[in-house]
């Protein structure tokens, strides 16, 4: 898969030949995303991520981390709505290759890091962390993700996280050192939680 933007040209290769271009709009913001089979929600923006983007607040100039970024929807959205400095991280190389192409296809800049959780960005601080975590991965993985988010979140920053209505992330968030958790949006299957650093 090849991708480019006006500012840079890059080549993102993948073992999967077919890719999908996912064009969608969230609250009037057009997103041009690139996906491949096997990546989460490969054929279109999932309901949880859509609810997250419709709910989260990103201020101009925020340093934003898209944790478990998949093909980069949250990062593209943050860059387009808040003029934010965006860093995306995921442990799946095909997903991060797609995220690189999604940034380019949408004409926005950002950094993409292939790493487990926050491992590739531990020395940085972010004002906003956007996360739709892999709920199927289990409590240990979720706890590790939230602990990492806590470490990289600035003292007055906010973690915005998608939760499934049938689950409750409050124990994992509490174990990660977060205090108050606000349920800020409720959808058919998902909720969005806002947690202040």
From TrEMBL:
One record GO biological process: methylation
Matches recorded under Gene3D superfamilies: Vaccinia Virus protein VP39
GO molecular function, a single term: S-adenosylmethionine-dependent methyltransferase activity
Name of one Pfam family that matches: MTS
Record bears the keyword Methyltransferase: yes
Keyword Transmembrane among record annotations: no
Alphabetical UniProt keywords: Methyltransferase, Transferase
Domain called Methyltransferase small: residue spans: 32-193
Name this protein carries in UniProt: 16S rRNA (Guanine1207-N2)-methyltransferase
